[in-house]
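[Help] Beginner question about ligand-bound structures

Sorry if this is basic. My supervisor gave me a protein sequence and a SMILES string for magnesium ion and asked me to "get the holo structure". I don't really know what that means in practice or what format the answer should be in. Inputs are pasted below exactly as I got them.
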Amino acid sequence: MSPGAEKAFPVSWDQFHRDARALAWRLAGIGTWQAIVCVTRGGLVPTAIVARELGIRIIETVGVASYHDYKTQGSLDVIKPVSHKVIDLNGGDGSAVLIVDDLVDTGKTARVVREILPKAHFATVYAKPMGRPLVDTFITEVSQDTWIYFPWDTGLAFQPPIAQSGGG
Ligand SMILES: O=P(O)(O)OC[C@H]1O[C@H](OP(=O)(O)OP(=O)(O)O)[C@H](O)[C@@H]1O
Ligand SMILES: Nc1nc2[nH]cnc2c(=O)[nH]1
Ligand SMILES: [Mg+2]
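Answer (accepted):
No worries, everyone starts somewhere. Holo just means with the ligand present. The predicted complex, written as structure tokens, is below.
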């Protein structure tokens, strides 16, 4: 998404745990997978929660980075590829694989990972409209002009009273 006027969607650890567990509940009703491919780094925390709930112990990573500057997407780099041992499980093309990421925004990251694992099931906790067609399962949709603030990127800070900030 482009920088500028946008809404903020701050997520606490508690809320994130609940949303990631809701994702696991939904996935449990859809299918079974032998391995998770975690899209690092954002996928690390939801992967830990989903893997625990679904009893999946084969965890592979694919490293994709594109937001090199805060809120601005640049070139897409696959920093760490997926092991062929995992791609080839159960007939190949990622058919035994669940891909987990924290969110899908423009869908560019998801598109690159899907090319590597075309038969995998793609799951994210949050989705924005542009990226939504790229994911098979997600929990909460937020608007395209919303920036999601994760608990690992934020901390407690003083909030000026509404009356002093021009609000109301
Ligand atoms: O749908 P897109 O517009 O491609 O954006 C979604 C991706 O952006 C973030 O990762 P980022 O590239 O910031 O790297 P990180 O996971 O290491 O923080 C997020 O974790 C997703 O992987
Ligand atoms: N933290 C965070 N990272 C992103 N990467 C792409 N979109 C987002 C977002 O809304 N929040
Ligand atoms: Mg990411």
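A couple of things worth pointing out: The chain is about 25% helix and 25% strand. The mean pLDDT is 93. Feel free to follow up in the thread.
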